[in-house]
Amino acid sequence: MRRRKSLLALIGIVVLLVSLAVPMMQCAPAAEEGVTPPEEDVSPYGGRLVIGYTDPIDSLVVDEDYTWTGMGCGLGGGTNMLYDGLSRVPKGPNYFEYSPCLCQSWETEDGKTWVLHLAENVKWHDGVPFTAEDLKFTWDYVWPDPGFWEIFTDAESTEVIDEHTLKVVLKAPIATWYGPPTWTYTPVVPKHIFEPYKDNIVECPNEEAIATGPYKLKEFVANQYIWLEVNEDYWGGRPYLDEVIMKLYGGAETMFMALEHGEVDVVSGISTPSGLIDDLQQAPDIDVADLPGNDMATLCFNLHQDLPYQDINVRRAIAHAIDRDKLIDLVYGGLAEKIDSIVFNEDIMHNENLPQYDYDLNKANTLLDDGGYLDSDGDGIRNDPATGQNLAFELIINSANQPSVKCSTVITENLAEVGIDIDMRAVDSDTFSDYLYNPLADAFQIAYTELSPGPSPFADWAWIYFTSTEISGGWAHAVYDNPVFDELYAAMGAAESLDERKEVEDEMQVMLQEDLPYIYLVRPAFLNAHRTDKFEGWVPQVGGFFSWMSPWSALEVHEK
């Protein structure tokens, strides 16, 4: 009975309170329209981003993998998640702007002697302060490795002025008016860890990978993944993500499948094959961004070989016989553009008045007829007038690159129409690279290659493909060996203004289009597949959100 009375009393109190509240609510002022209660603060930080790769690094040893592989660039080549460089690649579109990183500013009068002012309050991941001594050590003992392009970083001397100032005297001057952007994708290492290995840097196992970048190494499993965690005390400001995992896949097919299953958030280094685009676009929470491509499909002639294509008109006939529109439509589903230079079409350094080699079988046939390359034995293949041999060449392709196989098939069919026989030879990636980087061994005649230059001035390195073997060694795949071009190459690097540089580059582009050590074919778009359910803030760049040269997505991507 007592419990029942208590319950009735409680109900009465509630009824009374409600009856009093109603008139009070009616007398209250009306809420202002459009005003909503304040939301709770939500931290912009957090999340684990997984990036898919197909090109592995098998150790954290500081060698050329940091500049020539996707995962290596992610660590310190250009994406710089682990290692900072002296500068960063700008977001564009003006890539000549200086984007500071460890080098905040600089002074030079002659392009040869540079005084670099370094960022202060920078610490290595183990807490040791970063100083000019670290940069001097890196310059003296790490960057001289050919893998780090000593052509731009080779120094006569380095001198520490104070803790945050280094004086560098280069062996050859470089341009003074836009800063030292070529120092962007060369990682700076800690002297206190690497000094015992200074005579052979690659002997340092570098298992902890102590650096100064926005992320720190959490775990590394060779040929499987690299697990990074945020550097909470990053001197440049904490990035949004808590963790980044760079995960290796054995091939593109398994990587894109992992993307569909939500195991990967974004694909790096591989443009989405045209056959997968529709399926991915229709999948929930997946988008395929159409970004400017960084790869250029070309044909490279090994001019060290004494073959009929030494005749420039044979090379020009081949150029006129290739149907680039067919390559674009059949191989790339229309998502590519024709090219005529190592310089991107949209680049301010691109020469708009270059010799063109439009698809024209009549021109191709006329050039060959006038050169005496006739089908003298009636087998449908032209003959070399000097030897009587069939006009036939071997074309090597990288079997791992599916677009190259398809493009080379089209090219073979094109050239058959003008009486040139092409024998396609697919080789594995290592063999292809061995042949290409040792052209003097004459292991190949023509190669279907993909050049990946980047925008100016970050494409400066790519001009070395066309320099003499004395300058570039195995990088001169075509063995062009033109001393006039070598002089222009030096003049380009030392140009004292944008106008002067453009004048030199215009001449270089004309020379290459007239001489055709390479035939430029097409530039595919980079179709960057990524998930949209967890993250936003992707920064589009040439070659993708996480290309070899873009640090910005790593700094700006965040959870939704």
How do you describe this structure in short?
By secondary structure, this protein is of the alpha+beta class.
What can you see in these coordinates?
This protein has 560 residues and is α+β, with helices and mostly antiparallel strands. The protein folds into 3 domains: 44-82 and 213-293 and 526-560, 3-Layer(aba) Sandwich (D-Maltodextrin-Binding Protein, domain 2), CATH 3.40.190.10; 84-192, Dipeptide-binding Protein, domain 1, CATH 3.90.76; 296-524, Dipeptide-binding Protein, Domain 3 (Dipeptide-binding Protein, domain 3, Roll). It is 30% helix and 19% strand. It has helices at 2-27, 65-68, 70-77, 132-142, 150-153, 191-194, 252-260, 274-282, 312-321, 324-332, 361-370, 402-416, 429-436, 469-472, 483-494, 498-515, 552-556, and strands at 48-53, 103-108, 113-118, 155-162, 165-170, 215-221, 225-230, 243-248, 266-267, 286-291, 296-301, 336-338, 392-398, 421-427, 446-451, 518-524, 526-531, 535-536, 558-559. The strands form 5 sheets. Strands 12-16-11-15-13-14 form a 6-stranded mixed sheet. Strands 6-7-8-1-9 form a 5-stranded mixed sheet, sandwiched between helices. Strands 2-3-5-4 form a 4-stranded antiparallel sheet. Mean pLDDT is 89; it is low at 1-38.
